[in-house]
Amino acid sequence: MPYFDAASAAPLHPVARQALLASLDEGWADPARLYREGRRARLLLDAAREAAAEAVGCRPDELVFTPSGTRAVHAGVSGALAGRRRVGNRLVVSAVEHSSVLHAGEVHTAAGGTVTEVPVDRSGAVDPAVFAAALDSGTALACLQSANHEVGTRQPVAEVAEACRAAGVPLLVDAAQSLAWGPVEDGWSLLAASAHKWGGPAGVGLLAVRKGVRFAPQGPSDERESGRAPGFENLPAIVAAAASLRAVRAEAATEGARLRDLVDRIRARVPELVPDVEVVGDPVRRLPHLVTFSCLYVDGETLLHELDREGFSVSSGSSCTSSTLTPSHVLRAMGVLSEGNVRVSLPTGTTAEDVDHFLDVLPGVVAGVRERLGAPAAPPAAPPADSGSLVVDALGRRCPIPVIELAKVIGDVPVGGTVTVLADDAAARLDIPAWCEMRGQEYVGEEASAVGGTAYVVRRRT
Amino acid sequence: MPYFDAASAAPLHPVARQALLASLDEGWADPARLYREGRRARLLLDAAREAAAEAVGCRPDELVFTPSGTRAVHAGVSGALAGRRRVGNRLVVSAVEHSSVLHAGEVHTAAGGTVTEVPVDRSGAVDPAVFAAALDSGTALACLQSANHEVGTRQPVAEVAEACRAAGVPLLVDAAQSLAWGPVEDGWSLLAASAHKWGGPAGVGLLAVRKGVRFAPQGPSDERESGRAPGFENLPAIVAAAASLRAVRAEAATEGARLRDLVDRIRARVPELVPDVEVVGDPVRRLPHLVTFSCLYVDGETLLHELDREGFSVSSGSSCTSSTLTPSHVLRAMGVLSEGNVRVSLPTGTTAEDVDHFLDVLPGVVAGVRERLGAPAAPPAAPPADSGSLVVDALGRRCPIPVIELAKVIGDVPVGGTVTVLADDAAARLDIPAWCEMRGQEYVGEEASAVGGTAYVVRRRT
After folding, report:
1. Is the ipTM of this complex over 0.85?
2. Domains plus CATH for chain A?
3. Interchain pair B33, A233: CB under 8 A
């Protein structure tokens, strides 16, 4: 049963399991105590810190363990902002950061700070020059992920780090998705990551803060983890996390190349096998194991459900799969289609057979969902005589229905005529322009609608 | 090799180990995902929450899992204070709370709030009437531990809860030390606890917030754990924590009675076997497994080291065993001797033989430490003719030397004469009065010293 959602959580690496079991016996005591069980725990903790620091590329005393990658980001952002409070209160982040960065930004905004989001291109990458331009003398901290968690695009970390250095702004790199594959390019000031993304156990994140970076931990602290992560250390899990990081790094080159080939196969074959698909994310500068595509006229939740029935576990950034019924902020920032969105992230050890089986199953699953939704099967027929413009009322209908209704009637207006779609589903704002781009139609823009929702105007070109 | 520091951390309960192993296979996926691995994880998480809530005595939707007991306290205190910000900014705590509560109080103070510490008696318990008197119309939150972590004294939680109810103030109970032995008496509004204190794994705390309590989570949050504990859930550890809580509760009555007898044996025998010992904490209203005593004229660090050499792992509240070189705030608040302090906390399964062996070894170890420190062996001899007063210079000498020097010369002044001890060690302020009480001498008070440190004045009575 292929599990294709390694970017959410990876099954425990065998090395992690072994290390966890051993340290349940050896590492349960308080490493702050002076008796033998405590000293043994301290030795394990020190060794884990050294191993993790080596993999990160920092000094052991620059690295602390946190209860999760999310908490590492929260502690890193708040500590760095507070450490540079006198410099200014601006936080600069890319628009496609992990939600943990954005949530930390919301808290900063609520406390009177400002957050500047640097836009990304259609591949999901920031432009280093645009990022640099966002840095000003009042910028306390900049955040950039090493690679995007939804579409796999690697960010130009070295260039942005250089811009930050030139501007005198510390850079926090969220390396959660990439640390398994290698160290982050040099130049960062703070780095956060999460063990369960690299086959370590849940309950362990890491936060590295370079010596010399102004850092003032926020919230209550205690004597543990240099005052940066309070509470009893989760030692067996920390030991397992460090051991598995070392293990996945040893396999990273060969396994990365193998998975990269499998992802290339998905990237090439899906558009051949499934009509009306957009594969998103940078095809080259990307994580080896992750690919995302979106299928027109498909309801993401149903698609995931059908794939699950066929034995495939994947995730989605479609609005219907989120609790807020809004599309993924990453897809939104990229301006790409969000309906029928599928993220495939291959865990270590995924076989070519698993991938081929997925490619065998996917076309039928997508076709089945489209058929049930009444999606248009073919491009519009020859235009009728006239009927210059049409209005489609999709108010109250959820993704992908507004786009399906648009596609059904575009053939009913002449070239040059317009279709106006009334919709109140959040995904429409993203998906109607994306549909136009995929279909070679002109997206005119949106207007207020007298009857509620928003009026999206499309002009027929072909 | 007897491990007698269960109050710091308990070895993993066999049931916890079994549950952890099973859920490493079944519970590694993201419980927020819709595919089968995610649904399986969600089922495990729900079941763990139900089991924990039953043991706590609350509804499952009132309970969230946190990364540690410390983090549960921090989240509980900050959320409850923020939820009642409009009522006032006073936090009322007992003087003997766990450091996590005090650290949360420090953050509150730094943010402009006020913290009122309710004193305790010599047994370590608060007086409910005194606690009630500290509650005023501007009190946002009160905190009281269910039982003290250093001396085992149970607090009058029900009476204090009733006083809080009458004053309209929510009560947070830190139940970290007692939850293994049974639910907390009713009447609390918030409750925090820590799994590794009951034989669960590290990395799991729990926070219960009663419905109707105003609560505003502080810091960044996400969709996990009702927005009260951000970050990927540490699911295998949560499952193990819930399973072991259920297991220790099933054994609590019989095991509690057995350990209570063993602790009674220590409480009775130590003062018989070791001269100049003070057993502290309430002898009756106490945790079943924990006892603390202090030995005059003994250096705590050396004592722990010697006991460790004999195979016994215990902890201490002596100043020399703390990184700040100040005695435990608990012993200080109780006004009891802190030098030569030993806390014995018996894990489940401790045998009578282990305890008897400890009682066999302890007298020789204490005598050895005293001999090396030159402690006075016997009460003062008959007073000499006169020499009305004496000054002892113990400046720069650490605990227990100032007390030893005092004891050496008290026989050199006549009854009614005084000894003035010059000392700059923080423990002297606690231990010189405690010595006077143990020895039936009069503690006159402290004075500023012209040559540095503090002058502690003692009048000979016997």
Report:
1. yes
2. 14-248 (3.40.640.10), 253-373 (3.90.1150.10), 389-459 (3.30.110.40)
3. no
